[in-house]
Write a structure and sequence with these properties.
- By secondary structure, the protein is an all-alpha fold.
- It has one domain.
- The chain contains three helices and no strands.
- α1 runs antiparallel to α2.
- The relative contact order is 0.19.
Amino acid sequence: MAHEMAELLKSRARRALERWVRRYDPEHSEELLDPMRFYVEAAEVYAAVDAGKYLATGQVLIELHTDDPVNR
């Protein structure tokens, strides 16, 4: 169940990030905080569930870095 919650948070983050990229406006960069918050929450869920397994948390952080429009 917790993994499903983390996947939902990642999905919400991807959609929010895609919306932000489509209507990119430097004056509204604070809107980018929502997708980042979802990614962090997903990482926290993975960390809580898989305390001994850092792979899932690492995957979320790598995805966060890869999805960041600045890194494109």
